[in-house]
Amino acid sequence: MALLTIKNLTVRFATSTGSFTAVDGIDVSVDKGEVLAIVGRSGSGKSVSMLAVMGLLPDTATITADEMSYDGQNLLTMSAKDRRKLIGREITMIFQEPIASLNPSFTAGYQIEEVLRFNAGLDRKSARAKALDLFKKVGLPDPEQKLKAYPHQMSGGQCQRVMIAMAIATDPRLIIADEPTTALDVTIQKQILDLLMELQERLDMALILITHDMGVVAETADRVQVQYKGRKMEEAKVLDLFENPKSNYTRALLSALPENATGDRLPTVADFISPDEAAQQAKVQQ
């Protein structure tokens, strides 16, 4: 049985002029200890589908699904109290823009200690000791000093390490990482990805990695799901997808990798697939 199972998830947002569909009938599943990459361009519903799982979408969102379960527990019918016992403890999330995700008014140490006190029931002294240990685990330089530092006093890479420390603080079974390296330079991106993969393997966590970077997918994932305009285009093991992509959109993504350039310009999605074809192909895949 999969650790997380989502079937036929649809998310619609109300607007002043009506509504629009951000996620249109998507299925997602991930097993214990597996790394699943969800890949696609901006607006493909990657983040929205996972925010629906976390219960972090605004009131303007309407969420429907045939199934949304975690370890056999129904997230759709679960009470808010029981869901809070899972979210932040067994299921955690690492967001884009690490500096923006931290509260600028509190030190990094205080913020992770509050996570530990609320979700793990630790007293202040134990939470401080655990926070220090976590900062060491994620490779923050001078971890004791970083406990006292405010987000603006740290680099983007250091803030992302703080976010990773917060995500693993309660020994979760599933981490959702939403483009965790987007705001970082290339060197720091590799360090953060290497850290995530090291922790995932060491702690045997399931990891859902949201990204638009096929290079990252090739280096990190066991399985990959490709999304386009709110629909799932295809899903496969990573090697199978790279060697034999089924959808034209996936071929477009792979052809846009710099190493696959064959002329003066990289191909675009429009070179491979029209919106009508994308809709039809998604229906076939589902």
Automatic annotation (TrEMBL):
Annotated ranges, domain ABC transporter: 4-254
Provenance organism: Paracoccus cavernae
Protein name, UniProt field: ABC transporter ATP-binding protein
SUPFAM superfamilies named in the record: P-loop containing nucleoside triphosphate hydrolases
Family the entry assigns: Belongs to the ABC transporter superfamily.
Cited Gene3D superfamilies: P-loop containing nucleotide triphosphate hydrolases
Signal peptide as annotated in the record: none
Keywords assigned: ATP-binding, Cell membrane, Membrane, Nucleotide-binding, Transport
Cellular location(s): Cell inner membrane
Highest taxon of source: Bacteria
Membrane topology: Peripheral membrane protein
Subcellular location, principal: membrane
InterPro entries linked: AAA+_ATPase, ABC_Ni/Peptide_Import, ABC_transporter-like_ATP-bd, ABC_transporter-like_CS, P-loop_NTPase
GO molecular function: ATP binding
CDD domains, per the entry: ABC_NikE_OppD_transporters (cd03257)
